[in-house]
Amino acid sequence: MRIKKGDRVKVITGAYKGTIGEVTSVYPKEDKVIVEGVNMVKKHQKPTQANPDGGIIEKEAKIHVSNVMLWDEKSKKASRIKMEVKEDGTKVRVYKTSGKEVKVK
C-alpha cells in the first residue's frame, strides 16, 4: 500500500467525495485507512468507569484505500504516485503530476 500515516489525501468517491484530510491510521492487511473527518459514524457506547455517562459518540470509520488519492499541494490536484530509487539506493514516493517527492509529516 502506498499511502502512509500523515499523508494528505482526497476522497474520490462516495458520500465524502472531494473532501481533503489527513490519514490518521492505516490498515494494510484490510487495504483500508482512516481519514480525519471522513466517513463519520455514530457509535453507541455503554457506560464505563472511564466514561460513566456512556451515550452516542461520533467517530471516523475505515474507508477503502482505492477511494482516496494523495493530494499534491504544489499542483493542487489529487495525484497518482510512482516509486523511484535515489542515487543512494533508497526508494521514495513521487507525485506523477508535479514530479516532487512525497513528504511524510
Automatic annotation (TrEMBL):
<dbReference type="InterPro" id="IPR041988">
    <property type="entry name" value="Ribosomal_uL24_KOW"/>
</dbReference>
<dbReference type="GO" id="GO:0006412">
    <property type="term" value="P:translation"/>
</dbReference>
<keyword id="KW-0689">Ribosomal protein</keyword>
<dbReference type="InterPro" id="IPR005824">
    <property type="entry name" value="KOW"/>
</dbReference>
<comment type="function">
    <text>One of the proteins that surrounds the polypeptide exit tunnel on the outside of the subunit.</text>
</comment>
<dbReference type="InterPro" id="IPR003256">
    <property type="entry name" value="Ribosomal_uL24"/>
</dbReference>
<comment type="function">
    <text>One of two assembly initiator proteins, it binds directly to the 5'-end of the 23S rRNA, where it nucleates assembly of the 50S subunit.</text>
</comment>
<dbReference type="InterPro" id="IPR005825">
    <property type="entry name" value="Ribosomal_uL24_CS"/>
</dbReference>
<dbReference type="Pfam" id="PF00467">
    <property type="entry name" value="KOW"/>
</dbReference>
<keyword id="KW-0694">RNA-binding</keyword>
<dbReference type="GO" id="GO:1990904">
    <property type="term" value="C:ribonucleoprotein complex"/>
</dbReference>
<protein>
    <recommendedName>
        <fullName>Large ribosomal subunit protein uL24</fullName>
    </recommendedName>
</protein>
<keyword id="KW-0687">Ribonucleoprotein</keyword>
<comment type="subunit">
    <text>Part of the 50S ribosomal subunit.</text>
</comment>
<dbReference type="InterPro" id="IPR014722">
    <property type="entry name" value="Rib_uL2_dom2"/>
</dbReference>
<feature type="domain" description="KOW">
    <location>
        <begin position="2"/>
        <end position="29"/>
    </location>
</feature>
<comment type="similarity">
    <text>Belongs to the universal ribosomal protein uL24 family.</text>
</comment>
<dbReference type="GO" id="GO:0005840">
    <property type="term" value="C:ribosome"/>
</dbReference>
<keyword id="KW-0699">rRNA-binding</keyword>
<dbReference type="Pfam" id="PF17136">
    <property type="entry name" value="ribosomal_L24"/>
</dbReference>
<dbReference type="GO" id="GO:0003735">
    <property type="term" value="F:structural constituent of ribosome"/>
</dbReference>
<dbReference type="GO" id="GO:0019843">
    <property type="term" value="F:rRNA binding"/>
</dbReference>
<dbReference type="InterPro" id="IPR008991">
    <property type="entry name" value="Translation_prot_SH3-like_sf"/>
</dbReference>
<dbReference type="InterPro" id="IPR057264">
    <property type="entry name" value="Ribosomal_uL24_C"/>
</dbReference>
